[in-house]
Design a protein that fits this description.
Number of helices: 3
Largest sheet: 5 strands, antiparallel
Oligomer: single chain
CATH class: Mainly Beta
Number of domains: 1
Helix content: 25-40%
Strand content: 35-45%
Radius of gyration: 14 Å
Length: 117
């Protein structure tokens, strides 16, 4: 029963259903299709709030290179595909998406998973 915590900026989109995927670093116990997902904001604080429960529809590996290339399931994403990934993850554009991952994870290559529900 994986619990996923979201920054407050994403909480409304998750709760409303506008955001139906998340990109996360790899877990010790990977999330898999069919798992029940518990979505929260503010975990481990007094402001903790459950946003929703859902069922994992799919997962795929993703990596973002230091050259801003995005690979999903080992396939390099073209400009339109990168924009689709960024928008599905709650960003208006690719620039904001890449800046967020650089800020969160530094300038090294990011390896993780796209989790969709």
């Amino acid at each position: 029963m994986p619990a996923l915590n979201y920054k407050l900026r994403f909480a409304e989109d998750v709760e409303s259903g506008r955001k139906r995927q998340t990109i996360r670093s790899r877990r010790k116990t990977p999330i898999k299709k069919g798992d029940t997902l518990y979505h929260y904001t503010g975990m481990r604080t007094k402001e903790c709030r459950k946003l929703l429960e859902s069922v994992c529809a799919s997962t795929a590996p993703i990596w973002i290179t230091i050259n801003d290339e995005v690979f999903v399931d080992c396939v390099r994403q073209d400009e339109d595909e990168r924009l689709a990934v960024a928008r599905a993850d709650g960003f208006d554009d690719v620039r904001g998406f890449l800046a967020f991952f650089r800020q969160q994870y530094g300038m090294r290559r990011f390896d993780g998973d796209i989790i969709k529900w």
